[in-house]
UniProtKB/TrEMBL annotation:
Organism of derivation: Postia placenta MAD-698-R-SB12
Cofactor: Ca(2+)
Active site: E288, D292, S485
Function: Secreted tripeptidyl-peptidase which degrades proteins at acidic pHs and is involved in virulence.
Origin: domain of life: Eukaryota
E.C. number(s) listed in UniProt: 3.4.14.10
Catalytic activity: Release of an N-terminal tripeptide from a polypeptide
Residue numbers binding Ca(2+): D527, I528, G546, D548
Highest classification ranks of the organism: Eukaryota, Fungi, Dikarya, Basidiomycota, Agaricomycotina
Name of the protein described by the UniProt record: tripeptidyl-peptidase II
Cofactor info, note text: Binds 1 Ca(2+) ion per subunit.
Heme is among the record's keywords: no
GO cellular component, one term: extracellular region
Keyword Metal-binding: yes
Position of the signal peptide: 1-18
Length: 567
């Protein structure tokens, strides 16, 4: 259960807040202009009600990150000794002094807060624009996202009392500007051929059709077993957004035609958040939701799958990503793998918001959860193709505690899919686990694209998987999907199956994958050495020997990974 918000030791700080006029204000977040695609439409009505969130300072985030590396690095004596819910919360819960200081400020302004995170580090408040402008020395205005016409109320700057700077990380959504929904698959086309498999000279791995890729093909290509030990205490979570629903009849159809001979009772379970639902009306089935559930339920056989349908009754300002992270953090037994095939661009989020969400993923990693995101479908121009003068990093792939998954095409050899988003973060520096890999790539790159990307940033994607002409069932018919949206659930299935086998052998789940992938796991991946991801008027980055910002370290080889994880 979430902890109730308390008035802790408010009397200790009440004197300091007795006269608001004496409070010096300090700018906490600021941007010079809205990001590309957003236009200013004038001041917001003073009566407009704002739902804002406050991120309180966590008491020892540095300590949690150190513990995360300890339990996630294969050479560490503590490898695999993941933390409990309580132990993680001990690191991130704000101090009583922080709670008291923030509470006193809110109380002085007649604002009531509600705790909305398991560790008590996030609060929610509601207040009118007029009061928010006064409290925060802000100028909340109406901004329009030009492509969609969606309007939101944001400010380009806000301040808090200088006394609170050591207690409050951010107030949100304020200077974060996100499109109304996260990106979807690159391309979806109806399949008009036959689903009968035909082995040919174009099918060097066997078991793959000539004109599409299905679960049988992926299983063969990546040396995945037909089954793993059946467990009930390990599961994969698939997150769904934008009112796209996973259709049970479509999954049945997928299994009957494309996984013939597999159990006919395979099915995902459904959980909902923020008013989400999973309507089974055929017309309401969603391509993304079907893709993600069919290539987990239908590929990671005997690993339970939960579809989390996230509705639009959220105010987290990042599509519901923050609500989802806190939802799983509140569980005593979270999933071992979370796969998300949605994303955005770094430039839309303030650095403070991006860091806060990334830190939530670090908490999940410390508890033994692998967090996977598709890298995006815009090459070096972000999650989707767009005009740009410098390369656009996607989000949250730049977060080092996320495993970012790019896309490949063809079979043997696989090559980089041209749309596979990759590059270098402008928010996060190159983490220690990939210093050597990134350095080697930069040496290979030389002066190519100099000035178009952040050479000291965290590189992404980390890995890749098939992402072109992926066959799914939709409306009781077949469609082909292109995008890294395909790649993330495929790689998640590999991880979920490995976790089943690890647990059966008395070992821990893999948890945060990146330190493993860039060390003992690297040799268990198939290096992709050709292809590139053009964008921004350039040929962008090229795949090459070793890690590259198109396909990462490569695609999975289950047999080799099985050995690499110590089985």
């Amino acid at each position: 259960m979430l902890r109730p918000f308390c008035l802790l030791a408010a009397s200790l700080v009440s004197t300091a807040w007795s006269n608001p006029v004496l409070h010096g204000l300090q700018v906490l977040e600021h941007r010079d202009a809205p990001p590309r695609g957003f236009v200013h439409g004038g001041p917001a009505s003073p009566d407009t009600m704002l739902s804002l969130r406050l991120a309180l300072k966590q008491n020892n985030m540095d300590g949690l990150i150190e513990a995360l590396y300890d339990v996630s690095t294969p050479s560490s004596a503590k490898y695999g000794q993941h933390l409990s819910k309580y132990e993680v919360e001990e690191y991130v819960s704000p101090t009583s002094m922080t709670i008291a200081a923030v509470n006193a400020w809110l109380s002085e302004n007649n604002v009531t807060a509600t705790t909305i995170s398991p560790a008590g580090d996030w609060l929610a408040i509601t207040l009118p624009v007029s009061q928010a402008n006064s409290m925060l020395d802000a100028d909340f205005s109406v901004f329009t996202h030009q492509e969609s016409g969606h309007q939101s109320v944001r400010t380009l700057s806000y301040s808090i009392p200088s006394d609170l700077v050591s207690h409050l990380d951010l107030i949100h959504p304020t200077v974060t500007f996100t499109p109304p929904s996260a990106a979807l698959p690159l391309q979806v086309t109806k399949y008009t051929g036959t689903t009968k498999k035909a082995t040919s000279a174009n099918d060097p791995v066997g078991n793959c059709p000539d004109d599409y890729v299905d679960a049988d093909c992926i299983e063969t290509l990546y040396n995945m077993p037909d089954t793993v030990p059946a467990l009930s205490n390990n599961y994969i979570a698939v997150t769904g957004y934008n009112n796209y629903y996973a259709n049970e009849a479509d999954l049945d159809y997928f299994l009957q035609w494309l996984r013939y001979g597999y159990p006919d009772d395979l099915m995902f379970t459904v959980e909902t958040l923020d008013g989400g639902q999973n309507d089974q009306t055929e017309d309401d089935s969603g391509t993304e939701a079907n893709l993600d559930t069919q290539y987990t339920t239908g590929l990671a056989t005997y690993v339970p799958v939960t579809f989390l349908s996230v509705g639009q009754n959220n105010t987290d300002g990042v599509f519901g990503f923050l609500d989802v992270a806190n939802y799983f953090l509140d569980m005593e037994t979270p999933p071992s793998v979370i796969t998300t095939s949605y994303g955005s661009n770094e430039e839309y989020l303030s650095t403070n918001v991006a860091y806060a969400l990334c830190n939530a993923y670090a908490q999940l990693g410390a508890r033994g959860v692998s967090v996977l995101y598709s890298s995006g479908d815009g090459g070096v121009s972000g999650t989707q193709n767009q005009s740009c003068t410098t390369f656009v990093p996607s989000f949250p792939s730049g977060c080092p505690y996320v495993t970012s998954v790019g896309a490949t095409t063809d079979l043997q050899p696989e090559v980089a899919a041209s749309f596979s988003s990759g590059g270098f973060s402008n928010y996060w520096a190159t983490p220690s686990f990939q210093q050597s890999a990134v350095s080697n790539y930069l040496s290979y790159l030389g002066s190519t694209n100099a000035g178009l990307y952040n050479a000291s940033g965290r590189g992404f994607p980390d890995v890749s998987a098939q992402g072109v002409d992926i066959m799914i069932a939709q409306y009781q018919e077949f469609y082909l999907v292109d995008g890294t949206s395909c790649s993330s659930p495929i790689f998640a299935s590999v991880v979920g199956m490995l976790n089943n086998q690890l647990i059966s052998a008395g070992k821990s789940t893999l948890g945060w994958l990146n330190p493993f992938l860039y060390s003992t796991g690297a040799s268990a991946l198939t290096d992709i050495t050709s292809g590139n991801n053009p964008g921004c008027g350039t040929n962008s980055f090229s795949a090459t020997t070793g890690w590259d910002p198109v396909t990462g370290l490569g695609t999975p080889n289950y047999t080799l990974l099985y050995s690499a994880v110590g089985l």
